[in-house]
């Protein structure tokens, strides 16, 4: 992890790349100019030498020319011999005594009769041009580098500002705040996508927290109602001397509330285990008909059981009995007419169905039927915990199946 | 006293009724909000014990409806929920007190006695004078259907006027109600803010509800 902020790191990387680019560009221009100047100079000297070979030995300003004999003596042109007689054509850069202080480029050309032509031109202009270019780069380069780095730094800042804005808002978001969103940049770029993805995550988390809070609020409501009854019942019983029948009635009522609290606590425990992970299941083969008859026998009402003989499923008998018991209890309390408990084998699954002849679920309740503490207004009568169907759904899910409701029928689908 | 118990849980309703009757009070039970409103209109109860969770209309709605119908019997809200928002919403809906389940019956009785002592004078949650309406909970003000934006000071001053409509209020009294000890000691601060208020609640509507009473102070007129 580098301790430098991204903005600085970006700017440094940008500056390094820019320096490299500027240096490469400078070198390229320098070499290009030098080669072009050399070529030009070479061509001039060549022309001069050609002219000398043709007989006109010209010495212009800042140039020199001479014709040497085979013995190296000057036949014509510049007084002092510049080079020894040559056998092949060559260039030579050096200072020439008797001329100015600048280096000269000499072209030595052997011509017929063993003679040699030497022509030369001053390198002053060429060197000055190259030095000028170099100076321009040494001064302008760092300035250009500094300016572009500053620009890069500002640009990086502008690009990263939405990130900083999002960070600052994110620091303010907690479980106490609701509906908070990260600010999104206007441009639909990667940062926008990151921000909207994080916002979607926030919305999901918030929905989860809201669900959790609602559950806790509902649970506390469900726990407080029987507790309130217990407390008021006992307090009233103690307020004044009571006849034995009165006390017995108060104790019966208190016992009823204790039963209700016990049921609620048990249901909450099952659901807490579901939330922790998997509901522990003791899987075993269960004869379907036997399972249905066992559950139906627990109720005093007449329940029609329909199941094929000999069919069996694999599951946790205790949990399935609990789930079916919840469904029968619902049908008994909220339904009407004959209650039917049936099992049917489809291709890859077994359906356990509880139905009655009542009006069924109110349509507005259906989507939430398996949620915790969902209850129709008129169904908020005494006895139910509001968790029965939630447990049915949890048991079905733990078995790899699912529960669904339609009209006055609830179906548990199990694989196998 | 005569108490109306609004509670949908039959066991709880019966217990409350029995307890109240044993203490020598009269107690009637309503199972739904609609029954409660109907019964409260028929009998002037000394107090109403209102459960928040009711089938159909919940306790908040019932309380608002009671107040809207001009029933000012003190309302003690009873609920198994204890979220702060619920308590705030309950009191802002016009309830006078709030008790959480499970409660002590002795405390319920004491609170009912305290409520009855305060009486059942009109004390609307939203104050109305003429077609001016002011909601202290949301700090909103309307003239008819038009919402008026007021600054905090202007709002406090208007609230002071609206709770005492038709009364002549001296500058000192207005200072007492709408300013605290930290106010700028400028003698004409009340006059300045009354002028601001007139610019907002009167002039745009062609009204003159804020009246100057020469030598005495100001008055908010119901018919202005």
List the helices and strands and how they pair.
The complex is a heterodimer of chains A (416) and B (224).
Chain A: H1 6-53, E1 63-68, E2 74-77, E3 90-95, E4 103-110, E5 116-122, H2 124-172, H3 190-239, H4 244-276, E6 283-287, H5 288-297, E7 303-306, E8 312-316, H6 317-334, E9 339-345, E10 349-355, H7 388-398, E11 402-406, E12 409-415
Parallel strand pairs in A: 7-9
Antiparallel strand pairs in A: 1-2, 1-5, 3-4, 4-5, 6-8, 9-10, 10-12, 11-12
Chain B: E1 2-6, H1 10-22, E2 26-30, H2 33-42, E3 47-51, H3 59-68, E4 75-79, H4 84-92, E5 97-100, H5 105-118, E6 127-129, E7 132-135, E8 140-143, E9 146-148, H6 152-162, E10 168-169, H7 171-178, H8 189-202, E11 210-213, E12 217-220
Parallel strand pairs in B: 1-2, 1-3, 3-4, 4-5
Antiparallel strand pairs in B: 6-7, 7-8, 8-9, 10-12, 11-12
Helix pairs in contact in B: 2-3, 6-7, 6-8
